[in-house]
Amino acid sequence: MTDEQFPDPAVQVSGAQEIAPDLLVIPNQRVQLVPNIGIIGGTQAVLVVETGMGTANAEQVLALASEVARGRRLYLTTTHFHPEHAFGAQAFTDHANYLVNRAQADDLQAKGPGYLEMFRGFGDPIADRLDGVTVPTPDVVYDDGHDLDLGGRTVRLRPMGRGHTKGDQTVEVPDAGVLFTGDLAETGQFAIFPWFPPYDTDVSGVRWLAVMDQLTATGPRIVVPGHGDIGGPQVLGDVRDYLRELRDETWRRRDSAMGEEEIVAEVRALLIGRHPEWVGREWIERGVGCLCAEHASEPHW
Ligand SMILES: [Zn+2]
């Protein structure tokens, strides 16, 4: 994705916070390639959301989840196939039932090997984390949404269609008003557009915006983004507003026949000016590239 050397993406389980009764989040502490991880308990079972990258991270997450569970049954799900979210799942084999939506399972199978290879090229800390890692194989795959009964608490696993990837799903805990968005939302950074033509062009800015409108309407009280600080419903509104900005500024220039390179330069400067504190500036260019290839009426599923 970039040529820079990434820092070690270590999950810090000691930082786990209880954001609602029997609902822990291990915050990513703003470390790149570390996701926010959830541990959601009911009376009978506990669901882990995301594994962290690699088996060593995932083993720590599993250890904490097992300690929290105290004998309750364990489940695992992931929000999408990207390595820092899902590529620790093998540590949960024999300990938890791994459930995902169909499109994510397809992504794991079709794109998992390529992403494993690509991420191993991101420098030694990442290659070390991915040593011995295999592409995860889910135990249960569902076609539409899945309601998981944890005992006195039902969690809604919802595939969102194409957005950040082809297979994003959200995890909603209605009784606590908590929504895990995966990388459909981040805070403190520019939205992540994994637009790598010709290898991966599944991200859709147009569809992503539609998903954000839909998520905003569900009215969560607490939003756990894929990366960055946990917040209120405004997290969703901020991402939606940014995606609109990115789309409108890109399309305005494209429609006046400006070349893509020039569009990138102008939109990048403009958006950095509007969000000077955000990191991940390299994602602006990829977002512009994605939106340059899209049209409003395109049924881009
Ligand atoms: Zn992602």
From TrEMBL:
What CDD domains does the entry give?
metallo-hydrolase-like_MBL-fold
Concerning Pfam families, the annotation shows:
Lactamase_B
Q: Name one GO molecular function term.
A: hydrolase activity
Q: Which InterPro entries match?
A: Metallo-B-lactamas (IPR001279), NDM-1-like (IPR050855), RibonucZ/Hydroxyglut_hydro (IPR036866)
TM region positions: none
The protein's matches in SUPFAM superfamilies, at most eight in alphabetical order, are given as: Metallo-hydrolase/oxidoreductase
Q: Which UniProt keywords apply?
A: Hydrolase
Keyword RNA-binding in the entry? The reply is: no
Record protein name field = MBL fold metallo-hydrolase
